[in-house]
Design brief:
The complex is a heterodimer of chains A (about 260) and B (about 350). Chain A has nine helices and twelve strands. Chain A is an alpha/beta fold. In chain A, strand 11 and strand 12 form a beta hairpin.
């Protein structure tokens, strides 16, 4: 069963068409990577799903429920969005930022504290918990925000109905923390969480994405597994770049090298 | 110093601060009650207070303490609490630690409303229960200005706080210009009445005013903390708060209306009092962090404390002459605020 299903979705929140004819289905426990040139509509698609604006036509369903009909708090319990960067400039402690993820829940203090401990550990920022957010580096802030959105949809048993939207989550991270983020995504998939992720690095993307959706000018160019989608002609058309496509020696996913 | 906090130190700070404020406020109120222009010693004042508490209202001392000082000191407390809570709510809504409740036009609108009533002869009509028509005009002016600002900032895409800020500045300028025009055309006596009223002061304190101001304070104390979670989430950004399930339009409207009522009432009852709404929440946030669950009640206590102390100073500094309390809060507030601005980087606040 698909956790997230988009059918012929069109959106033009400010008059001009931003996204048109998007149709994609993502099953529980899989990851959809979204790629495309700058301005292709990648972030817009995530923001549309997150509810920042509404679709003009088409249907968006999560777990067979029309997204627009879902009350905001219930939607927030199922669906979390990690933005590209955060504007937070108030001196919260790290712990206070992460616990904000529990805002839509009524799980109570004890349970929230337990989840707080769990997500801090899984993002490996337990040591930062009493630091002031405003005094952290860009990469540390990004990891704190990741912990916050994880706290929002955290479930120890199964995350089958949960959806995580990640907008360029690796940009501010060093190599070790990029790998850590990919591990977290793989772990979430194992626990049946559905992940949508925008990443510019095709090789990082291929290591976690089960499907790739290619956008250009707000339209769906192609859609399939990384192997199907990563073709030299695509890179020539969309990015005006000649590439070699290889296969990762141990993991088997496609590997893109610019010529 | 602040960089490496010990675990739980913020929770301890919060508890300590709220307890200290709760202990200091009654003390400041008692000091306010035993200070003043009348020739009463502290012992006489305390005795009078003791008699009043026992229900004996016999002598002159009891009259001075019970009829003049008590409503005044308590009105200072509830107005200070009002302004500080409204300031905390505005700073949260605008995600700007330097926002002031007057930003959305309420103070300027109320000033114009009050001045209009003074000019059109409101003094001839002593209103209901000691509340003059001037107060009613000020309250209405404040609320109308805010609703106008809110309307200007609201479009099909929602209400933009940035537009609200700009519209607030525009409406403040417009109301100021209209007020100046009024002042330009009236005679000297009227001009003095307007400017004295605008300076603010608690000398018009009475029990009816205290009941009205107190009820608004209690309403704010009950209403604003219900938006604490929404304000906490809003600090992340408006989209982030929406993704956390917060009803943004409802939160904005509710906060704007409550601030209009709170600040409108305070301008109506005691005139414009500078800096309480700006400095108090800012200082409290510096001490205990931005969690509105604690920031709102702690600001209320600290605002009450500050205004009680400022009013006591206003009464005794040049005794028997009384200074308008707005002058004291500004004179104390501005240097304090500037020193805060210069220290901002110490606690990691970014511009």
């Amino acid at each position: 069963m698909s956790t997230l299903q988009l059918e012929k979705v069109n959106a033009s929140p400010w008059g001009t068409p931003l996204l048109s004819g998007i149709s994609v289905a993502v099953t529980a426990g899989s990851a959809l990577g979204i790629v495309g040139p700058n301005g292709a509509g990648k972030t817009s698609l995530l923001r549309l799903i997150a509810g920042d604006f509404t679709a003009d036509s088409g249907s968006m369903r999560i777990t067979n429920q029309e997204l627009a009909d879902l009350p905001p708090r219930l939607r927030a319990r199922q669906l979390a969005y990690l933005p590209q960067f955060s504007l937070l400039n108030f001196p919260y402690t790290v712990e206070e930022v992460v616990i904000l993820g529990r805002t839509p829940h009524d799980t109570g203090h004890t349970e929230d504290q337990r989840i707080l401990d769990a997500v801090l550990a899984s993002v490996d920022i337990s040591a930062l918990r009493d630091r002031l957010y405003t005094q952290l580096s860009g990469g540390e802030k990004q990891r704190v925000q990741l912990a916050r959105v994880l706290a929002q949809i955290w479930d120890d048993d199964s995350m089958e109905n949960k959806i995580l939207l990640l907008d360029e989550p690796t940009t501010a991270l060093d190599l070790a923390h990029q790998q850590q983020l990919l591990d977290i995504v793989r772990d979430l998939k194992q626990r049946l969480c559905t992940v949508l992720v925008v990443i510019h690095d095709f090789n990082l993307l291929a290591s976690i994405a089960d499907q790739v959706l290619v956008l250009d000018h707000g339209m769906q160019v192609t859609h399939g597994t990384p192997h199907e989608v990563y073709q030299p002609s695509l890179f020539a058309d969309l990015f005006d770049t000649r590439v070699l496509i290889n296969t990762h020696p141990t993991r088997g996913y496609p590997f893109v090298i610019p010529q | 110093m602040i960089t490496n906090r010990l675990p739980g130190s913020r929770a301890n700070n919060t508890r300590l601060l709220i307890l200290s404020l709760a202990a200091a406020l009654p003390l400041a109120i008692v000091i306010g009650l035993i200070s003043g222009a009348a020739q009463l010693t502290a012992t006489e004042s305390l005795q009078a207070l003791w008699h009043l508490a026992g229900g004996h209202n016999t002598g002159q001392a009891e009259t001075i303490v019970g009829r003049i000082r008590l409503p005044r000191v308590l009105l200072a407390a509830v107005m200070g609490a009002n302004l500080a809570m409204c300031g905390a709510a505005m700073q949260g809504l605008f995600r700007n630690p330097l926002a002031d409740p007057s930003l959305i036009g309420v103070t300027a609108g109320a000033s114009l409303g009050g001045a209009l009533v003074i000019v059109t002869g409101g003094r001839l009509l002593e209103g209901y229960m000691g509340l003059t028509l001037i107060s009613a005009g000020a309250f209405l002016g404040g609320v109308l200005a805010v609703l106008f600002v809110y309307r200007l900032a609201t479009s099909a895409n929602g209400t933009s706080v940035a537009t609200m800020l700009l519209a607030g500045i525009a409406i403040t300028a417009l109301a100021g210009a209209l007020g100046s025009m009024l002042e330009f055309f009236v005679d000297n006596e009227m001009l003095r009445r307007i400017s004295l009223w605008k300076m603010g002061g608690l000398d018009g304190a009475s029990y009816p005013r205290l009941w009205l101001g107190g009820s608004v304070s209690i309403a704010l104390l009950l209403a604003l903390p219900r938006y604490a979670a929404a304000l906490n989430a809003l600090l992340l950004g408006e989209s982030e708060a929406r993704h956390l399930g917060i009803d943004i339009p409802r939160t904005k409207l509710a906060l704007v209306v409550w601030v209009a009522i709170g600040v409108g009432t305070s301008v109506a009852l005691v005139g414009t009092i500078a800096f309480v709404g700006l400095v108090v929440p800012h200082l409290i946030r510096l001490l205990i962090g931005p969690n509105h669950r604690y920031l709102l009640p702690a600001s209320a206590l600290a605002g009450a404390l500050l205004l009680v102390i400022a009013d006591t100073l206003a009464r005794v500094a040049l005794s028997p002459t009384e200074l308008p309390v707005g002058i004291i809060t500004a004179i104390v507030g501005v240097p304090f605020f500037i020193s805060l601005l210069r220290q901002r980087h110490h606690y990691g606040m970014q511009s």
